[in-house]
UniProtKB/TrEMBL annotation:
Group of enzyme by EC: isomerase
Active site residues of this protein: 95 (electrophile), 167 (proton acceptor)
Assembly mode: Homodimer.
Subcellular location: Cytoplasm
Source organism of the structure: Geomonas silvestris
EC number of this enzyme: 5.3.1.1
Cellular component GO terms held in the UniProt record: cytosol
Main location group: cytoplasm
GO terms for biological process, alphabetical: gluconeogenesis; glyceraldehyde-3-phosphate biosynthetic process; glycerol catabolic process; glycolytic process
Catalytic activity: D-glyceraldehyde 3-phosphate = dihydroxyacetone phosphate
Source organism, top-level taxon: Bacteria
Family: Belongs to the triosephosphate isomerase family.
This protein's name: Triosephosphate isomerase
Keywords: Cytoplasm, Gluconeogenesis, Glycolysis, Isomerase
Length: 251
């Protein structure tokens, strides 16, 4: 039985006080959600301030990115060791916004996943096709390339903690959501690629999240799909009530 993961990617929102207020409001709303793994990903500067706020709650902390070196002359970067020191236990890697705006490639994503695993941090490894790729019938081709490229050189034992997040780029922040059938089809394909790389047992254990305009209104349908193990939530994670409603989808 794969434990669902509901992760909130706060992106470039929330100062320290705003983040504290959100967590304080959220914690009691998800206090009974022990059947779900709850993760929130604030900006780097907020992480240490949230450690005492989430202590004793169901909420875990993630960073939104990581660099692949532990230290050195890399102005502006943050290493896995530093993220652990700041209180993170998860890290989002390869989000489509990082790929689109900051030049992330399958190669750099691969290096970051390896750095996170060595941290050790739990990577939330993001993949997904653009609208152009989907309309050209290349969805599976893109997903296979991203999965295999991102996981290159990572053995089965190392891979075990990795969480994969499928986010069709055309559905992120647009209000559009893949239909339940579209999402399930993509998730099943991704699980098949993992099976090819690591075997059926590993594929049966890996958790694959759906991301892309997840809201309280559509989460139940998505979570009813056999290969969808949770959600990577954007805008709806910025308000306690809506994010709690998604976390509590099964109640």
């Amino acid at each position: 039985m794969r434990k669902p993961v509901i992760a909130g990617n706060w992106k470039l929102y929330k100062t320290k006080q705003e983040a504290l207020s959100l967590v304080e409001e959220l914690a009691p709303l998800v206090a009974d959600a022990g059947q779900v793994e709850i993760v929130v990903a604030p900006v780097f500067t907020v992480l240490p301030s949230l450690v005492p706020a989430v202590a004793g709650t169901q909420i875990n902390l993630a960073a939104q990115d990581v660099f692949w070196e532990e230290e050195g002359a890399y102005t502006g970067e943050v290493s896995s060791r530093m993220l652990l020191d700041a209180g993170a236990s998860y890290v989002i890697i390869g989000h489509s916004e990082r790929r689109e705006y900051f030049g992330e490639t399958d190669e750099t994503v691969n290096k970051k996943i390896k750095a996170a695993l060595n941290g050790p941090l739990i990577p939330i490894f993001c993949i997904g096709e653009t609208l152009a790729a989907r309309e050209a019938g290349e969805t599976f081709k893109v997903l296979e390339r991203q999965v295999k490229g991102g996981l290159a050189g990572i053995g089965a034992a190392q891979f075990a903690p990795v969480i994969i997040a499928y986010e069709p780029v055309w559905a992120i922040g647009t209000g559009k959501t893949a239909t339940d059938a579209q999402a399930q089809e993509a998730h099943a394909f991704i699980r098949g690629v993992v099976s090819e790389l690591y075997g059926a047992a590993a594929a049966g254990k890996v958790r694959i999240l759906y991301g892309g305009s997840v809201k309280p209104e559509n989460v139940k349908g998505l979570m009813a799909c056999s290969d969808i193990d949770g959600a990577l939530v954007g805008g709806a994670s910025l308000k306690a009530a809506s994010f709690a409603s998604i976390v509590n989808f099964g109640q």
